[in-house]
Prior knowledge:
homodimer; mainly alpha; 7 helices; 171 residues; elongated
Amino acid sequence: MGTDLKDQLTKHIDEAIAMEEDVVRMLESMIETTDDVDIKRELREHKVETERQSQRLRERLEAHGAEPSLVREAGGVMGALMKSIVDAARSEKAGRNARDGYATEHMEIASYQLLERIARRAGDEETAEVARQNRGEEEAMAARLDRHWDRFAELSLRDAGVTAVANAAAQ
Amino acid sequence: MGTDLKDQLTKHIDEAIAMEEDVVRMLESMIETTDDVDIKRELREHKVETERQSQRLRERLEAHGAEPSLVREAGGVMGALMKSIVDAARSEKAGRNARDGYATEHMEIASYQLLERIARRAGDEETAEVARQNRGEEEAMAARLDRHWDRFAELSLRDAGVTAVANAAAQ
């Protein structure tokens, strides 16, 4: 494996670990601010899943003789997603949580698409497989969010203090 | 239409306009930093599409007797996506552009899922239709990005100065 390519691979694995650690904290914040029992349960399940993903990536990093630096990309997307989640405490939690969560899942999917290919080019099939497996879980989570838009819209209106939803259609 | 619900609807339309205006600027920055001819062309086409989407939303806002405030959600996700795109000038443009672009498309999709439902509950079928139409275009753009992961990975490695990609598989 060329040194440059191996450096890029470990850098991408390291960044994926930092991303998943951020997602764990984001999910914890979402779980706290979610009242809906079903959605809360799905978020909790995805938190456990996310912790497993992080562990798989750590094992791959160790296989390359490296340790997680948990380096942050200053001002990156994830930092802002985190901030947005925290800000969401202000109003309309459900709508913003859903939107930010959906964007985050797809940022993770994109990251794993790239990691899988870089690992494969570096001849590291195990990391490519971890990337593929983690991506599958993110895609499943995104599909679960996709089934809830009706509920997210209702919860968003409720958070905004709109209660007379049923009346609207009559006018 | 209840006042509260109408307020929420115009607020969501207004936020969608601000989002699309941000996306236009983000696409301009991506176009500048993209060398790949095919991807550059797709970004340009999506910029034109995005300007049309913004215009449709403005017409719906005007139909409700309101004007765009182009209000920003301070510290929101979009602001950070923008910052990330600008920061991407530093290194690995292609990989970060692709990841941020993919996350952004899905944030737009999520926003339109919510807007469509809130408009429908408010009895505003025209806005619901604009939301549905704009979402369809975002989904098509996301599908285009999905076809390019091989190329994004290659461009990402090239931006990082890795040129000996072809050699890696042999080791």
